[in-house]
């Protein structure tokens, strides 16, 4: 009998994701509900595709008055949402991180900052899991950690606290790597994907990057 050829799915379906990230997600009374809804949506998307999912809670200082009339820094709880796809084999530098910030700064367009990045992250999860686990078109050599970061305080006006990505790296990832940088293969941070650089050749990935992406899945 002829061997069955695995079907590779390249279809990108991001519009539904964008619809769920079209509003601000910020830790104040006005936007707190949308913030929580975004968390739940991301969690369900990770779990739907069979990923081992967990929440990393942390506290940080955020200026909750986004327009600056009554600036007041408050300690708020953030929640990084982490999903792990374990590799079937391990190689040196065996852990790859793919991440995006899911909160907004309450001012900029919530799709630019950063609903589009989260939509791409979730589609990456869907296509990755389909092509690696379900169709088995590719073999997964690296444990891949998908993470949606909360509270990017570096983009919040007047916020002095550490962002969610800082807490992820220092309080979660370093432990996951058994405190050895040898186990870390790199990170793809999918932010600002709607901000296009129009300079000549700026949108062309160099050969080394293409080779690394290919090696990541082979």
UniProtKB/TrEMBL annotation:
<dbReference type="InterPro" id="IPR045175">
    <property type="entry name" value="M28_fam"/>
</dbReference>
<dbReference type="GO" id="GO:0006508">
    <property type="term" value="P:proteolysis"/>
</dbReference>
<dbReference type="GO" id="GO:0008235">
    <property type="term" value="F:metalloexopeptidase activity"/>
</dbReference>
<dbReference type="Pfam" id="PF04389">
    <property type="entry name" value="Peptidase_M28"/>
</dbReference>
<feature type="domain" description="Peptidase M28">
    <location>
        <begin position="80"/>
        <end position="172"/>
    </location>
</feature>
<protein>
    <recommendedName>
        <fullName>Peptidase M28 domain-containing protein</fullName>
    </recommendedName>
</protein>
<dbReference type="InterPro" id="IPR007484">
    <property type="entry name" value="Peptidase_M28"/>
</dbReference>
<comment type="similarity">
    <text>Belongs to the peptidase M28 family. M28B subfamily.</text>
</comment>
